[in-house]
């Protein structure tokens, strides 16, 4: 995924929630804080699951151009979730990777006086001012994944855990190889000048520190594209004739990596992908390639962002939590999908 901005995995503002836990909370629904009982415990008890239609809410959704499978899944998740609510109207922009154009689209939504904005900025830093503009106009903003430069530009942030992706990929590989002496691993990373790539590599390296029998012997940075995945993987294969595991940061570039692996006739190692594409999950389920797992960066965060926006528009909290307000931040968990649990996650796989 091409993310110019990413949240810090160590931010104290982030409330860590597993994907399943977050899904359970939002599927349970958000409930009104209105309660005539003055007893505080009764007020909190009222904040339980309820999906009944409430106040009509118009949600403006602005994201970047869907030029990647994950980004397209973000748009689709938001649209599908909004349709599930009879009280939600979704105003969605065409999406753009041009910051000036996206700012214009968001300003149009502000002028339409939508009740809440959900924004996945093409560049979080560059779009901070328009986030601030919306908040100052009284329109709460749900900042999706690529974080704005100021917390004043949004009411709630929700996104993935890049450090956690690397950490969980490293632990999975470590457990698979813990009985092997002098094991070797390589890494096919994303775009190196992106903070998210550095976070994923840092998490991976930190996990491997727990396995003294494993050494990372190679790393190449690709560009989150099929073509770059194929060319960079070919270079890795040529440079390393013997290794035991590969972690690839992104399932889209993994398509190219798998082509290079097949062309080289290699099947002597295991591969772990990243993000959770459907083709990767299908391969994991078939269990007939080197790809044995993928670490999620769940696009379901867009559906949860719609849930949060609806709750904000209706003055509600989150079902399943005692607090009367929605959290300031939600970091989704990077689950590892293997053949043992792939059926559970297949519905979230994106094309």
Automatic annotation (TrEMBL):
Protein keywords: Signal
Region spans: Disordered: 33-56
Residues covered by the Periplasmic binding protein domain: 59-316
N-terminal signal peptide: 1-27
Record carries keyword Plastid: no
Localization per Swiss-Prot or TrEMBL: Cell envelope
Alphabetical list of Pfam families matching this protein: Peripla_BP_4 (PF13407)
Matches recorded under SUPFAM superfamilies: Periplasmic binding protein-like I (SSF53822)
InterPro entries linked: Peripla_BP_I, SBP_2_dom, TAT_signal
Family of this protein: Belongs to the bacterial solute-binding protein 2 family.
PANTHER family: D-ALLOSE-BINDING PERIPLASMIC PROTEIN-RELATED (PTHR46847)
Protein name (database record): Substrate-binding domain-containing protein
């Amino acid at each position: 995924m091409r993310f110019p901005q990413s949240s810090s995995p160590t931010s104290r503002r982030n409330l860590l929630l597993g994907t399943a836990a977050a899904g359970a909370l939002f599927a349970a629904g958000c409930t009104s804080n209105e309660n005539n009982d003055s007893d505080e415990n009764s007020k909190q008890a009222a904040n339980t699951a309820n999906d009944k239609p409430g106040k009509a809410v118009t949600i403006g959704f602005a994201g970047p151009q869907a030029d990647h499978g994950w980004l397209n899944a973000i748009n689709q998740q938001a649209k599908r979730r909004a349709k599930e609510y009879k009280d939600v109207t979704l105003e969605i922009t065409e999406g753009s990777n041009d910051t000036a154009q996206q700012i214009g689209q968001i300003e149009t939504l502000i002028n339409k006086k939508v009740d809440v904005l959900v924004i996945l900025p093409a560049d979080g830093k560059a779009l901070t001012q328009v986030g601030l503009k919306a908040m100052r106009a009284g329109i709460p903003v749900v900042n999706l994944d690529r974080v704005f430069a100021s917390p004043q530009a949004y009411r709630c942030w929700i996104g993935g855990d890049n450090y956690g992706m690397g950490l969980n990929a490293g632990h999975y590989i470590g457990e698979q190889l813990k009985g092997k002496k002098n094991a070797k691993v390589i890494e096919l990373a994303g775009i190196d000048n992106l903070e998210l790539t550095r976070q994923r590599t840092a998490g991976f390296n930190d996990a491997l520190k727990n396995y003294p029998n494993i050494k990372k012997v190679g790393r190449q940075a690709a560009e989150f594209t099929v073509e770059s995945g194929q060319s960079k993987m070919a270079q890795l294969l040529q440079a390393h004739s013997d290794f035991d595991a590969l972690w690839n940061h992104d399932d889209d570039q993994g398509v190219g990596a798998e082509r290079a692996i097949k062309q080289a006739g290699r099947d002597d190692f295991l591969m772990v992908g990243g993000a959770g594409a459907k083709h990767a999950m299908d391969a994991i389920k078939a269990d007939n390639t080197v790809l044995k797992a993928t670490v999620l960066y769940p696009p379901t965060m867009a559906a949860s962002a719609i849930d949060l926006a609806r709750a904000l528009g209706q003055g509600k909290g989150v079902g399943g939590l005692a607090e009367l307000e929605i959290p300031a931040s939600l970091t989704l968990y990077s689950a590892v999908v293997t053949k043992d649990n792939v059926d559970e996650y297949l519905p979230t796989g994106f094309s």
